[in-house]
Amino acid sequence: MNAKWNGQFSCFDRVARKKTDECAKTIVRAGQVEIGGDEFVVMAGPCAVESERQLLQTAEAVAAAGARILRGGAYKPRSSPYAFQGLGLEGLKILRKAREETGLAIVTEVMSEEDVEQVAEYADLMQVGTRSMENYALLERLGGCGRPVLLKRGMTATLEEFMQSAQVIAMASPGDPQIVLCERGIRTFETATRNTLDIAAVPVLKMVSHLPVIVDPSHAAGVRALVPALARAASVVGADGLIVEVHPSPDEAMSDGAQSLTFGGFREMMDDLGPYLAIRYGKRRSRLRLVNQRGVDPSFVDPRVVDSKIVDAKISDPLIVVAGGAD
Ligand code: PEP
Ligand code: MN
Q: Which candidate among 153, 198, 210, 235 keeps its CA 20 to 30 Å from the CA of 220?
């Protein structure tokens, strides 16, 4: 670890990288999906579960485009008490149905320690939102819940405070910490975007911690036109994946419609990520999965064949190259 950060982060010993173990990395398992390994894992879905039809349609669309995990809030932390608060248990049941129908793993937010047990029955990955990063009662309960945790960075939290919250979960966890860190943008003086994506946070966290790091370009941007560019940036600075908002009809969404991608927009974003991921994972000759543009042919190919295609890959290439892939 860089000497500058050694003293600052090494005290968070359950989540910090040790000086003697520079290559160590934790792989987090959410259902059948491994985060932090040789796959760039994309989680996608609506901000909130609104209805069975909305979620199932979205699940099918994002799965076909290469997403591995379905997101959707059943309990929604909203700044305004008048905004839609989520469907609660009914939303969790709809998420379970989507998993049964598509095989996607489920990530959903838990807001209160009292809900941990219930949400853990339905979720493969327990999301802690930006507003809850310092809810220590919740973090401690999550450490023992038997499910991995997606910890979002507090919107005004330093990286040291972020690592501290991860350490709180890890100290309450019986085994190796199963925590994914998520950079989702922080508050700065800038108002053109909803938050400021702290892109440097990704390589810093990768250096100081052995935990996987993903990026949420949707809440960082606040507008859908910026989401693909921020997603590409995340892929080249070394993020292990993304969490992205997608809605069948964003203009009618009950929350965060302005930053949600349409199905077509999501497919395009995934297409455009292909060459960047090919360069990154192709070099390591990791197994790659090719999905054609309609997303119907997730056949595996010999990595050498993929490598030769990478050489010719262009931004507009009608191939999504997903590193790794399911068996
Ligand atoms: C969300 O993922 O919909 C969400 C509320 O995110 P954040 O906690 O980062 O604002
Ligand atoms: Mn949202």
A: 210
